[in-house]
Design brief:
15 strands, globular, 2 domains, about 15% strand, alpha/beta, binds NADP nicotinamide-adenine-dinucleotide phosphate, about 375 residues, seven-stranded parallel β-sheet, two-stranded parallel sheet
Length: about 375
């Protein structure tokens, strides 16, 4: 990651939430790699030493830690669910006066919990971040939202400047991201500059296959591979690579002309499920296609409680989405314009990338090796990711 030369030649002081998570870790590495900035990171930790250890362990786990980063990372023990982000009044005020920009990527990402369980971290946390942004001097905020907050049932295309739906999809996590965007919109109306980055699904790194295994889609995949069955279904899956998301966000954020607008960051190419099944089969896994309801019923009956997919089984809808209620297409016009000429593009979820990610998941023990190795032998070794 070369030092960025487009703006901000003078080192800045940033504040980042979510640095121990998947997206936040990559955003942190990208910021540190492309700028000379110092980054204060909110982290759930008992003290600074524990905080830096958690951040370092997270980046190391994703294969993106560099020792030279450490002097520019300042852990800030705290908690999104608490007033003043869990800091003392004095610490909060000092931080507010020290920082120039805020990146807010922290959230409780849980598709099972109800809204009430997510509200404190996702809505309250965002309100406290806004409070920090307006304390002492006003500073811009870069907020990681989710496309889901914008989706209305039955909608076919979601544009970056669409108004927020009057009410969100009835799903706790989506409701919390929608309510957080409402808080952001209220702050914007009062003059706060907030750039909003809305990812769709974020998946593995395009060159290493590294991903986080707590992801809903991967848990479900684990269950499907365990049972050897997938639903016969025409839906497409839109997954962006984490390196695309983090470098796009950081690039856009570093240009002052881009500040204060919404950006959709999705893969320009959704992949039909039958094509993805073929790429998984060519890695060596056996997968039989079953009618949707038969597949759902069999997963529910056969997967043991110890299965990685067990906790997400209740989230599988009883029936597949009818054609008119499938995932909408995501308009990314402003993001694409902001990224034009940079070479920052999203890798397609082709056979190479699917095999790379499956190889990573086998290497870390999340998935068993395929029974039939097929072409997997070419990609499961770590040399394929070097
Ligand atoms: N991954 C995706 O596909 C995707 C798609 C759309 C939108 N997003 C959005 O992207 C952002 C990052 O998601 P992610 O996938 O990177 O999630 P993640 O891996 O679960 O990371 C969440 C981060 O938020 C922190 N966090 C959670 N609760 C907190 C609290 N009470 N106090 C302080 N920090 C707290 C976590 O800290 P701990 O390590 O202490 O838990 C972690 O650093 C979220 O806003 C999410 O809504 C993600």
């Amino acid at each position: 990651m070369p030092a960025d030369d487009q703006s901000h030649p003078a080192p800045r002081t940033l504040f980042l939430t979510g640095a121990t998570g998947f997206l936040g870790a990559f955003i942190l590495a990208e910021l540190l790699g492309r700028t000379a900035d110092t980054v204060h990171c909110l982290v759930r930790a008992k003290d600074d030493a524990h905080g830096i250890e958690r951040i370092r362990d997270g980046l190391t786990g994703f294969g993106i830690w560099r020792d030279e980063y450490q002097p520019r990372i300042r852990p800030v023990p705290g908690d999104l669910t608490r007033p003043l982000l869990g800091m003392s009044e004095q610490t909060f005020s000092r931080l507010a006066s020290d920082i120039d920009v805020i990146y807010h990527a922290g959230a409780q990402v849980n598709f099972v919990y109800p809204y009430a369980a997510l509200k404190a971290a996702n809505v309250g946390g965002t309100q406290e971040v806004i409070r920090l942004a307006v304390r002492h001097h006003v500073k811009p905020v870069h907020y990681v939202s989710a496309i889901d907050a914008m989706v209305k049932l039955g909608e076919v295309r979601v544009k970056e400047d669409d108004p927020l739906p009057l009410s969100p999809i009835p799903h706790g996590y989506v409701q919390s991201k929608w309510a957080a965007e409402r808080a952001v919109a209220a702050a914007q109306a009062k003059g706060l500059q907030v750039s909003i980055y809305r990812p769709w699904l974020i998946g593995a790194h395009s060159q290493t296959g590294v991903c986080h295994t707590s992801d809903y889609v991967l848990r479900l995949l684990h269950g499907c591979l365990e049972a050897g069955i997938v639903p016969s279904h025409e839906e497409s899956l839109n997954i962006s690579t984490v390196d695309f998301f983090s470098s796009a966000l950081v690039h856009i954020s570093l240009n002052d002309e881009n500040i204060g607008k919404p950006y959709h960051l999705a893969n320009p190419r959704g992949e039909p499920l039958p094509d993805l099944y073929e790429r998984i089969r060519s890695f060596g896994y056996r997968l039989d296609e079953l009618p949707y309801e038969v597949w759902r019923d069999r997963l529910n009956r056969t997967l043991p409680p110890a299965s990685a997919a067990y906790s997400v089984l209740p989230l599988i809808p009883e029936h597949p989405a009818p054609e008119g209620a499938r995932h909408p297409s995501i308009d990314c016009t402003r993001s694409l314009a902001a990224l034009e000429g940079t070479g920052i593009t999203c890798a397609p979820l082709d056979e190479r990338l699917v095999h790379l990610q499956l190889g990573y998941l086998v290497d870390v023990g999340f998935l068993p090796p395929p029974e039939h190795t097929g072409r997997a032998e070419l990609t499961t070794t770590s040399t394929a990711r070097a």
